[in-house]
Write a structure and sequence with these properties.
Largest sheet: 7 strands, mixed, barrel
Number of domains: 4
Oligomer: single chain
Distance between the termini: 163 Å
Order of helices and strands: HEEEEEEEHHHEHE
Number of helices: 5
Strand order of the largest sheet: 1-4-3-2-6-5-7
Strand content: 15-25%
Length: 304
């Protein structure tokens, strides 16, 4: 009888302990609030991947509630996300502590601290308007899609594959460029040496040309060239007249008669164009055919 009472007492104590543990666990995970009033926000997402019931809800980084339910929105009731233009397919019911004031300009998104197996949660970020209207129980909020690392890795992998293929195709070009660079390395120093020597010699030549003696020598050379060119003009004019006379009547040179008269030396030197010849001038006597418009002959000036 005494043993039965002891067993009964142990059983009752175990039952009470279990009830207390259940109550404590429920309080710890937020199932029961014991007088802590809360309100609900309906956050719509195109996808709530990683969020489950009892996922944490944070406001400015602080825990302010939890997710109580995730609902699938019927296709006919889906609205469009203005940022991504995707249709909101799920609605997350977030239970928020009653003392937390959330403005209409707040942003809600899915976050994860770090990488790997850390749990995801709903992050509510306050807006910039401190006087914005407060959200009430049952208010609907547009959630923003998080940056998915996997969606970035796949395009990066495709870009790397294309880059590898491009590098493979560029190998012959790279080999030619490398060969060309080696030739430049071997041939460029001698070229630079010769170029430097050429510049040095050029500086010396310019320095020599800049002396008064060299300038006088060049001026004298130019004056001689000018005299030679003027003499050549006169000789060419006389040769032209002689050639015309021989071509017309060759015997005039031996037996006399009218010849073709060349322009005077002064006329040749003053003119920049070809001067006409005066025909029929008697080399042994008076002119048989005179040209009244032709100027009288003048003695040729002496050219020094």
């Amino acid at each position: 009888m005494k043993d039965n009472k002891i067993n009964m007492t142990i059983a009752i104590l175990a039952l009470v302990a279990a009830v207390l543990m259940v109550i404590a666990l429920s309080f710890a995970i937020g199932k029961w609030s014991f007088g802590n009033h809360r309100y609900h926000l309906l956050i719509r997402f195109p996808s709530a991947s990683g969020i489950n019931a009892n996922s944490a809800v944070k406001y400015a980084g602080a825990n302010v509630g939890r997710v109580t339910e995730i609902r699938v929105i019927p296709r006919s009731e889906q609205t469009q996300d203005p940022n991504t233009h995707l249709y909101n397919a799920v609605e997350v019911v977030a239970e928020i502590n009653d003392n937390i004031e959330v403005g209409e300009d707040a942003n809600a998104t899915i976050r994860q601290d770090g990488l790997g197996i850390s749990a995801m949660y709903i992050q509510i970020t306050p807006g910039f308007d401190h006087n914005s209207k407060l959200l009430v129980d049952g208010a609907s909020v547009q959630g923003h899609m998080p940056y998915d690392l996997s969606s970035l890795i796949q395009p990066a992998g495709e870009a790397l594959s294309k880059a590898n293929a491009l590098l493979s195709n560029m190998q012959p070009v790279i080999a030619r460029i490398d060969s060309f660079s080696q030739k430049i390395d071997s041939q460029l120093p001698p070229i630079l040496t010769h170029a430097d020597k050429f510049l040095t010699d050029g500086d010396e030549v310019l320095a020599n040309l800049n002396t008064p003696e060299t300038k006088d020598r060049i001026n004298n050379m130019l004056a001689s060239l000018r005299v030679a060119s003027e003499n050549l003009k006169v000789v060419s004019s006389n040769a032209k007249a002689f050639t015309a006379t021989i071509a017309d009547k060759p015997w005039r040179v031996f037996w006399g008669g009218p010849t073709i008269k060349p322009p005077t030396e002064s006329e040749v030197l003053k003119s920049n164009n070809v001067l006409p010849l005066t025909p029929d001038v008697d080399v042994n006597g008076p002119t048989k055919k005179t040209n009244s418009s032709a100027p009288p002959a003048k003695p040729a000036p002496q050219i020094n």
